[in-house]
Design a protein that fits this description.
alpha/beta; Nitrilase/N-carbamoyl-D-aminoacid amidohydrolase; disordered C terminus
Length: 501
């Protein structure tokens, strides 16, 4: 039986990834998680750990396989080392469902079917939330993101991505209960009521327009990653972006990708930036662009977005990527990392209290690349921000799942906050996303293009912006406390019997 269970659970984890972009088969994650919950119901703590680990290996092994592409192909790390890094990263992520199963079965050792819908969904949510902040956080492949095109997406402005994750897990628990129980109809009706409620909520508008539609252009330069930082290519890159921007029809707002200007600000502020300012002033337009900034007095590097205006304003990236933009515990890991991936130095972290940039006179919530996966960071700019801007360089991920998953997460942020998002990337996928999370225009990957369209600045706050993740986290904790009170303690002999199976 064990020989059959192991590959089935790995396959279930792989199948769950098909619920996310670019596949979008969102019901699959419910079925896959239901299979894991059914195993956990009859598991000892040790077995639950093993089964959660197997599910996690399939889930993250497939879902974040792009880590190998980033480290090996674009980080120039030898394939055995890059492969080892990818495997280790997958193992660490797989520990979260493994520890979730172990903890739940340790605290709730019985076989009561109420565990399927009362305990397991709450535990899954709490461990998913834990993964989103511990060790700087990696909230990628959260269940809620897979539902951006499902009826459950109607809950995103109300309880956010984690709330939808809980509803996905709850649906899986109810499906499991229907599979096991004699009264199969009731659990399925309850699950369907949640999905119908999401469709009903999706008709609600939590925010309202602040002004007339703005014309916007997202400039995708498609500069090859291996060519981007070569000094001899700098002038060509600068000219390339300027020509793409100003050769076509005028827009109110232009957005360039992360580090689209591949030089420190002080290296281009005498000639290039002033020429951009003149063109923009003549058109009455705004340009936001990614650019690195070097504070030569304190010798600090910043990954930044610049609002090119008469007096330039900067947003400095707050949430840096560990081992990509800085080395945590550098005294311990620095020598090893620098030998594998030569670095000039760590980026510095931007302050959490920064003035908002403006585009066409409207305040903008800015984020750079990976920052868009952190819901709390994005919502911190609201309700002041009338729109959101995310600049990224997904060229690091090549033709993998990551650019599609990244765009999906950006759509979630737009819908949670009730704000349009302008997402400009170097090699794609650049997209104009409305305040309901729908993509109104997008680019192809690995093509030079300018994505043009319109967005409406918005005002007001969704329930998620007002209350954040606290309501659903409280619900999860209360569910576990209720289970401790109402579920009878299982005799230890039952656990021993399970071990003999």
């Amino acid at each position: 039986m064990q020989r059959l269970t192991d590959p089935v659970l790995v396959a279930a984890g792989v199948a769950a990834v098909l619920a996310f972009a670019p596949f979008g088969w969102f019901p699959l994650v419910v079925v896959a998680l239901a299979l894991l919950f059914l195993h956990w119901l009859r598991d000892t703590p040790g077995q639950a750990f093993r089964h959660g680990l197997l599910f996690g290996l399939g889930y993250f092994g497939f879902g974040v396989s792009w880590v190998y592409v980033s480290v090996h192909t674009y980080g120039n790390v030898a394939w055995p080392i890059a492969g080892s890094i990818a495997v280790l990263f997958t193992l660490v992520l797989a520990l979260f469902p493994a520890l979730c199963g172990y903890a739940l079965r340790r605290v709730f050792p019985g076989g009561q079917r109420q565990l399927l819908w009362l305990v397991f969904p709450a535990g899954w949510l709490l461990f998913e939330w834990l993964r989103g902040w511990i060790f700087s956080g990696f909230p990628w492949l959260d269940l809620g993101a897979s539902q951006i095109d499902s009826p459950l997406s109607g809950y995103l402005p109300v309880i956010g991505e984690y709330g939808v994750s809980w509803l996905v897990a709850l649906s899986a628990g109810l499906v499991s209960a229907a599979w096991l129980g004699r009264a199969r109809v009731l659990p399925l009706l309850i699950a369907l009521s949640f999905w119908a409620g999401g469709a009903w909520l999706d008709r609600s508008d939590w925010v309202r327009p602040l002004g007339d539609p703005l014309s916007v252009s997202l400039v995708q330069g498609n500069v090859a990653q291996e060519q981007k930082w070569l000094p001899e290519n700098l002038q060509h890159t600068l000219t390339h972006y300027a020509e793409l921007t100003f050769a076509g029809e005028r827009s109110d707002v232009y957005v360039w990708p992360e580090t689209a200007i591949p030089a420190f600000y002080d290296q281009v502020d005498e000639h290039y930036i002033p020429s951009l300012q003149q063109w923009l002033a003549a058109q009455g337009s705004t340009l936001l662009s990614g650019i690195p900034v070097l504070d030569r007095e304190h010798w600090e590097y910043f990954n930044a977005v610049i609002e090119i205006a008469e007096l330039p304003v900067f947003y400095y990236k707050q949430h840096l990527v560990a081992f990509g933009e800085y080395v945590p515990l550098r005294k311990l890991f620095g020598i090893i990392v620098d030998k594998l991936v030569p670095m000039n130095g760590d980026f510095s972290r931007g302050s959490a209290q920064q003035p908002l940039l403006h585009a066409a006179g409207y305040p903008v919530g800015s984020s750079i690349c990976f920052e868009v996966v952190f819901g709390g960071l994005i919502s911190a700019a609201l309700p002041q921000a009338a729109m959101l801007v995310n600049v990224s360089n997904d060229g690091w991920f090549g033709d993998s799942l990551a650019p599609h998953q990244h765009l999906e997460i950006a759509r979630v942020r737009a819908k949670e906050n009730g704000r349009p998002m302008l997402r400009a990337t170097n090699t794609g996928i650049s997209a104009i996303i409305d305040h309901r999370g729908a993509v109104s225009a997008r680019s192809a990957q690995f093509e030079t293009s300018v994505v043009r369209g319109h967005v409406v600045p918005m005002q007001g706050s969704t329930p998620f912006v007002r209350f954040g993740n606290w309501p659903v986290l409280v619900i999860a904790v209360l569910s576990l406390l209720l289970a401790l009170l109402v579920l009878p303690a299982a005799p230890r002999t039952a656990t021993r019997a399970q071990r003999k199976q």
